[in-house]
């Protein structure tokens, strides 16, 4: 009960600040964050909310270099972990008008480049909606793609 | 986490057994399952051993498996489509003898692509895997010109359907990652090696070149193998047999 209330407060605060920018016509024209926070995967983010709001890109940048150059693949601050939790339950994506990342970044007018390369959808739904013609169309998908969603035994995330 | 008496005794027993074993055996354990917070280490060097005698004519299982694993998609334009691994056919003009082999990034110890990269995007990881950090890559393609194996591709078109473990985007250079996500997960194999084995050829073997007890090291020590363009003294991580 506490969580939806907090979320509501957040949205109300953001809405009121948007409304401050002008009259009703303006607020209808201006993009306002409209995301819903998924609570299916627990009700706590990896860091306190105020820290995440301010510093989420710092965490992701730090993790990016650790993973890319040293092969450290802890999930706590990984982009993949963000997406797995925050992807919209309908679209499976963090992009789109109501997407967790895009709605806020559009509101703040900050361009996100992450998803020009990174997948913006939850891993399982990415495997399903593999649009386009894969190079492997000549051959039936192999076991690797079937096993994509299966957790590795004996390893903690 | 709570632990009962039986589990505690079991753990103690395992610890005693581990200390009693040779240190070499413990290293093998580590090689199979590195914990996610542990960095890649120069105690290992990952590589491939490819037996061209077992590589079947017309089979493209490794190429398809690579594309499937890493989300590579064709736009129907072969000149600019990404290619991390390709099949090469060699023919002896005098005798007519034909050989096949898969060719990918050779994961050199002295990689020319890293030497020429102006931004530091092209780099070699501690465990010998040569990668492109696409966050830093500016798409100049010097590395593609420097690579004697033409192993790298430039992403010419907007990418869709990327795998979460293999981000890739327009304007950057990419190549075989030796299935680095699988290596970090401790799978002990690559998509191409798995596919080749599944199709019954078993021409590709993945392993740790620095571990004297690994299958790949034992085979390299017992049988003749060659590096492609050994004259360049790059000490490749991918070795070939039967050439």
Number of helices of chain B: 8
Order of helices and strands of chain A: HHHHHHHH
Roughly how many Å apart are the termini of chain B? Answer: 55 Å
* Largest interface: chains, residues each: A-B, 39 and 52 residues
Question: What would your notes on this structure say?
Answer:
Chain A is mainly alpha-helical and 157 residues long. Chain A has one domain (2-123). Helix content of chain A is 50%, strand content 0%. Chain A is built from eight helices and no strands. The longest helix of chain A has 22 residues, at 49-70. The two termini of chain A are 29 Å apart. With 243 residues, chain B is of the alpha+beta class. Chain B folds into two domains: 1-32, no CATH class; 46-241, Alpha-Beta Plaits (2-Layer Sandwich), CATH 3.30.70. Chain B is built from eight helices and nine strands. Chain B has helices at residues 5-20, 23-32, 61-70, 112-116, 142-146, 180-185, 191-198, 215-222; strands at 46-51, 85-91, 98-104, 122-124, 130-132, 153-154, 173-174, 204-208, 238-241. Chain B has a three-stranded mixed β-sheet. A two-stranded antiparallel sheet of chain B has the order 2-3. In chain B, helix 3 (61-70) crosses helix 7 (191-198). The longest helix of chain B is centred in the first third of the chain and has 16 residues, at 5-20. The radius of gyration of chain B is 20 Å and the shape is globular.
Secondary structure: elements and pairs:
The complex is a heterodimer of chains A (157) and B (243).
Chain A: H1 2-20, H2 24-29, H3 49-70, H4 79-86, H5 100-108, H6 114-117, H7 123-128, H8 143-146
Chain B: H1 5-20, H2 23-32, E1 46-51, H3 61-70, E2 85-91, E3 98-104, H4 112-116, E4 122-124, E5 130-132, H5 142-146, E6 153-154, E7 173-174, H6 180-185, H7 191-198, E8 204-208, H8 215-222, E9 238-241
Parallel strand pairs in B: 1-9
Antiparallel strand pairs in B: 1-8, 2-3, 4-5, 6-7
